[in-house]
Design a protein that fits this description.
This protein is of the alpha/beta class. The chain has helices at about 40-45, 70-80, 95-105, 110-125, 140-150, 170-180, and strands spanning about 1-10, 15-20, 25-30, 55-60, 60-65, 80-85, 160, 190-195, 205-210, 215-220. It contains six helices and ten strands, in the order βββαββαβαααβαβββ. The structure holds adenosine-5'-triphosphate and magnesium ion (MG).
Length: about 220
């Protein structure tokens, strides 16, 4: 993932200011910084949910910011797993159906392959016995685990998480952090915006934002 001199304003408010950043494959990066420093904005630019006013956004060798909204939405569904602070599960779908949803939208494999993959993912997060429950029947930690399973459904090479543990107790925080850190592999890039210091030792790169600018990058940078 590569940002080249990226800036984003909302009205007169500068949210991200001339940020250049490289996060190679196989790396877990954390974005830290005070409230309002531009962490969520930065993630939204990388996922293509939003586009910059200036600069370029590249993900796995492809430029995404100059494409249409439709193109980016389809690209995101296939290539990016997004985990939000408030889970954003679909309340009237079961746990299994929530995990199936992105696969159905992109036409991933056959129906039976999709169901098998969804059940395998639920198994991996220890929630296979809750497949038929609705999100409203789960704890916050369980919901976030389902959101992570859903983010992994189409096997994305980029995973973005915006304060994924903000609303969890200590034990669930730890579980979610370990789950996310365990997703790093050779080809995958993971970027997490967080206030949790406990995440930081697991990171290969720590990017500190202040007032929309990169103040400091620690760790390996390719
Ligand atoms: N949709 C929007 N409309 C107007 N201003 C926005 C919008 N989104 C973000 N901003 C502004 O841009 C700046 C950066 O916001 P952002 O949400 O990226 O910060 P953050 O680092 O994620 O903060 P937090 O830690 O509170 O989540 C803030 O000043 C915010 O008020
Ligand atoms: Mg934020």
């Amino acid at each position: 993932m590569r940002l080249i001199e990226v800036s984003k304003k909302y009205g007169v408010q500068v949210a991200v200011r001339n940020v250049s950043l490289v996060v190679p494959r196989g790396v877990l990066a954390c974005i830290v910084g005070p409230s309002g420093s531009g962490k969520s904005t930065l993630l939204n630019l990388v996922s293509g949910i939003d586009v910059p006013d200036r600069g370029e956004v590249w993900v796995h060798g492809e430029r995404i910011d100059d494409k249409s909204d439709d193109w980016r939405a389809r690209w995101r569904l296939k290539n990016v797993g997004v985990v939000f602070q408030f889970y954003h599960l679909v309340p009237f779908l079961t746990v299994l159906e929530n995990v199936l949803l992105p696969m159905e939208l992109v036409g991933y494999g056959s129906r039976s392959e999709r169901v098998k993959r969804a059940l395998d993912l639920l198994d991996a997060i220890g929630l296979e016995d809750k497949a038929g429950r609705f999100p409203g029947e789960l704890s916050g930690g369980e919901r976030q685990r389902v959101a992570i399973a859903r983010a992994l459904a189409c096997n994305p090479l980029l995973i973005l998480a915006d304060e994924p543990t903000a609303h969890l107790d200590t034990e669930n925080k730890k579980k979610i952090m370990e789950l996310l850190a365990g997703l790093v592999d050779r080809d995958r890039t993971i970027v997490i915006a967080t206030h949790e210091r406990e995440f930081l030792p697991k990171c290969n790169i720590i990017v500190r934002l202040v007032d929309g600018c990169v103040e400091k990058i620690e760790g390996v940078e390719a």
